[in-house]
Amino acid sequence: MKSNSSSLSVRGLNVHYGHEKIINGIDLLDIQSGKLTVLAGSNGAGKSTILRAIAGLIRARGSIEWEGKDLMTMSTNERAKIVGFMPQSISATYGLTVLESVIIASQTLTPVIGTTKHEDQALSTLERVGIIDLAMKHLGGLSGGQRQLASLAQSLVRNPKILLLDEPTSALDLRHQIEVMALLKSVASSGCIVIVVLHDLMLASNWADHLIFLHEGHIVGAGEPKAVLTSNLLEKIYGVKASIARTKQGTEHLVIHKLSTNMMLKEGEYYNG
């Protein structure tokens, strides 16, 4: 990965599913390498859709600029050399071992199992993710959390310049959640643009450098977590009266007071603390 700083800017992003408009002209400007950026928000807010649009997995309109290039105009192969993507839903290719799946992911559009270069690269990535002991296990025999870690290795193996992860910790126990977030922080620090979708607000609060809140396809808050995670925003998005409490050690936790009857956020309303 590059040590030089770079940035990603998404402008005027529009995504439709049939006649339904999911993302309407959204802008994500100047997402910096070296920082861990988290997308949060309610179900159906458009978080996963944005990642899939950046990865080139769905049709979208607008521009996605990185180092003076528009990813929207790139071929699938060109974009695959730049972008690593970890999906939310992970299907097991039952005939493959974990190592084989990462070897295939280390290539772009011409996967071939068995080359020494790709095998060494895959083994190094499995070591980095902490699952070298699973290398010869078949994907179909893994737990949900183990399969999620294998998927993380697949997304990392080509050392992407832009790393997109959709709920990478959802199936993990507490220890592995912390290890994965620490790894992603390290990846970002090495010069990669890292964008993570998280529902766990405490993970977002304690690990994100930049937090972007989405609601119904619109950005309703963005900035440092402590500035964005306000009681007003949480109530408006989730319909929950809550606050963020900070411990003496500096970590934060969410305190739920009660559900709110006012669960609507007016279109265009923006809360930044």
Automatic annotation (TrEMBL):
Entry-linked PANTHER family: ABC TRANSPORTER ATP-BINDING PROTEIN (PTHR42794:SF2), HEMIN IMPORT ATP-BINDING PROTEIN HMUV (PTHR42794)
UniProt record similarity statement: Belongs to the ABC transporter superfamily.
Alphabetical UniProt keywords: ATP-binding, Nucleotide-binding, Transport
Organism: Commensalibacter communis
UniProt-recorded name of the protein: ATPase component (FepC)
Residue span(s) of domain ABC transporter: 8-241
SUPFAM superfamilies with a match to the protein in the record: P-loop containing nucleoside triphosphate hydrolases (SSF52540)
One Pfam family matching this protein: ABC_tran
GO terms, molecular function: ATP binding; ATP hydrolysis activity
SMART domains hit by this protein: AAA
